[in-house]
Write a structure and sequence with these properties.
285 residues, alpha+beta, 4-stranded mixed beta sheet, 3-stranded antiparallel beta sheet, 6 helices, elongated, disordered N terminus, coiled coil, Chromosome partition protein Smc
Length: 285
């Protein structure tokens, strides 16, 4: 009977011992998981910080590129060009360091359980960005090299450049003058205010078969018309108590009003009024 109790006691002790062992193992694993998660997050933070630095490099390179490729850069002093070259070299070295950091981070992250395809894509995109920046730096160095070569004959070219500028200015002035002349021509209009008799004498009005009246269809007297500008001509006093528009101007583009006992033709829609003809014929009595 004592032996039975002794064996039972051993089993109980063993069971308790096993239970405590499992608890300790679970706690250790949880602690390790926590450390791994914390490490992964820290390395992710390092990656984000590095991405920010790489982006800042891109902003700096773009700024230098704008300077080097600008027209004003040619007139920069040699010391200013050297300063820009030094800045480019410094960025070049920074990119090399960041490329190395990126590769080290990649290696560390790959050892973590939380490493994903998205993280790999992010790292690959940053590598490509660094490669692009290095290519831009190479291009800028080439531009600076060309600038240093060209600076020697820059003084020789100053006179020819000034001449070119002068010629361009003259051409621009001529073009502007021609544009103004063309605009004035397009806005030139003509009008005449006369009696039926005078209009016929000048062949502006012509009676045809069955009493039909033709307007300015033959060799009419253009010198009888008054030259004006469509942009400023808004009304035509007729000096008569009776007046009508006999040319092709649309009826809804003007009105005839009385002012001080005389008729005045007022243009209410200039674009429509001159759409069909640049000639206005007003017949008065």
């Amino acid at each position: 009977m004592k032996r039975v109790f002794f064996v039972a006691g051993l089993i109980a002790v063993f069971a308790v011992s096993c239970s405590d062992g499992k608890t300790d193992n679970a706690a250790d694993e949880a602690a390790q998981d926590s450390i791994r998660i914390e490490t992964l997050e820290t390395e992710k933070d390092s990656l984000m910080s590095l991405m920010g630095e790489i982006s800042n490099n891109l902003i700096e390179i773009n700024g230098l590129e704008n300077i080097v490729t600008s027209k004003e850069f040619k007139s920069e002093s040699p010391s200013r060009k050297r300063e820009i070259l030094n800045n480019i070299e410094a960025i070049k070295q920074e990119l090399a360091v960041r490329r190395q950091k990126l590769e080290q981070l990649e290696e560390k992250l790959k050892k973590q359980n939380g490493y994903t395809a998205n993280l790999q894509k992010t790292i690959d995109s940053q590598k490509q960005l660094i490669d692009q920046q290095n290519k831009k730096i190479t291009d800028l160095e080439d531009e600076l090299a060309k600038a240093n070569i060209k600076i020697e004959d820059l003084n020789v070219r100053v006179d020819s450049l000034n001449t070119e500028v002068s010629n361009v200015s003259k051409e621009k002035q001529i073009a502007e003058q021609k544009t103004e002349e063309l605009t004035n021509q397009l806005n030139t209009c003509y009008y005449i205010v006369e009696t039926n008799k005078v209009l016929k004498e000048k062949k502006i009005l012509e009676k045809r078969f069955l009493g039909r009246t033709k307007i300015m269809e033959g060799d009419f007297d253009r010198s009888a018309f008054v030259k004006a500008d469509k942009r400023s001509l808004t009304e035509i006093p007729t000096g008569s108590t009776s007046a009508k528009v006999v040319s092709k101007q649309p009826a809804d583009s003007y009105e005839i009003v009385d002012e001080n006992g005389y008729k005045v033709v007022k243009i209410t829609n200039a674009n429509l009024f001159w759409e069909k003809s640049d000639f206005l014929v007003i017949e008065v009595k």
